[in-house]
Amino acid sequence: MLDLEPPAHTRLRGLVHKAFTARHIERLRERIAQLSHQLIDQMQPGDDLLPAFASPIPVIVIADMLGVPTDMSQQLLDWSHAMVRMYELARTAEMETAAVQAAVEFADYLRGYVAQRRRQPKDDLITHLIAVEEAGEKLTEDELISTCILVLNAGHEATVNVVGNGVAALLQNRDEWERWRQDGVGLAKTAVEELLRYDTPLHQFNRWVLEDLEYGGQMFKQGTQVSLLLGAANRDPAQFPNPDQLDLTREKNPHLSFGAGIHFCLGAPLARLELQTSLPILLQRLPNLEMTAAPRYRNTYHFHGLESLLVSW
Ligand code: HEM
Fold first, then answer.
1. CA-to-CA distance for 81 and 153, rounded, in angstroms?
2. Among residues of the chain, what percentage have pLDDT more than 70?
């Protein structure tokens, strides 16, 4: 879906969008809250917040949503990590082989589930993707499987980065942490948008130039590739007053962290729900959270996130 152009993209996205409804997303709210509490109950001072809190929530939620058992979540994560390394600039032949193997294994695993859901439909995303139809069009088996894989990869990696980058930013701006902690869910909407802007989790995306164009005094020739620096756009002083300041009450916040145009992130409502639900719980439950080491960023290309976030309280 990410790489398709209209009309193929319009058709595929339209079908998937029909299965990805607000009702399906909203009913995950309770599950996200329960999971957040459960993970905090298990956390120990000195833990790394990424594996202890940030990483499990999105993958378990997506497993739930798809309708695959949550005890598969570690395996789903391993496949996802291997596959997204295809986005690296300096990828090796070994990384490519591992990514292909992960894709093959993941697809085989899902094929079994799709067959099962065709026989026994349930109220889950795989069943809804099987059922969606528009103007006589349905998803093919390959489209269905690649969509499930995209939802896992796209839905997991960036959300983890927002929690990691966001908590680090809040702990480095303690006043903002306190402000949100005291305000609770009231501030959640603007706070999450600001964390998405401030330390952009997917900071670069590419586009192909489909026709010659002049923009901002630059000529863009058909057929060339343009790198869009979402992270830089999100700190544009022409759009954001005091762009380098973390301001959880920022009202006007037209950030580009979910992209723009026809490929705008399909999972944005789910990502927002996860972040608006889990982060206030973390702040309430661990009000004295602090970092025990400076956060280190992973050396990655599209994704922009931490390697680890060691915390105590
Ligand atoms: C904070 C978390 C997330 C961020 C920052 C993010 C960001 C993005 C970005 C930048 C794009 C590309 C937009 C473009 O090319 O213009 C995208 C596309 C997409 N995202 Fe997300 N995403 C997040 C979470 C999710 C979740 C939770 C899901 C699903 C469960 C998801 C599913 C998708 C899909 C399916 C696309 C492809 C849309 C298309 O090509 O039409 N994303 N996302």
1. 8
2. 100
Q: What is the mean pLDDT of the segment spanning 47-66?
A: 94
Distance 200 CA to ligand 1 centre (A): 13
Dihedral (Cα; 32, 38, 39, 44), 10-degree rounding:
160
In-domain check, residue 1: no
pLDDT, tens only, 77-98: 899 889 988 888 888 999 999 9
> 308 in a domain, yes or no?
yes
Asked whether residue 164 carries a pLDDT value surpassing 80, the answer given is: yes
| Residue 208 is assigned to a structural domain of this protein | no
For residue 312, the one-letter residue type is S
Q: Pocket residues for ligand 1 (CB within 6 Å)?
A: 1-2, 13, 62, 150-151, 154-155, 158-159, 162, 201-202, 205, 257-261, 263-267, 270-271
CA 154–ligand 1 middle distance (angstroms)? 6
**DSSP conformation letters of 57-112:** HHHHHHHHHHT--GGGHHHHHHHHHHHHGGG-TT--HHHHHHHHHHHHHHHHHHHH
- Rounded distance, CA 117 to CA 139, Å? 14
Rounded CA gap, 263 and 17, in Å?
A: 12
Q: For the chain, how many structural domains are there in total? A: 1
Give the domain range for residue 66: 8-199+245-312
Residue nearest to atom 30 of ligand 1 (CA): 155
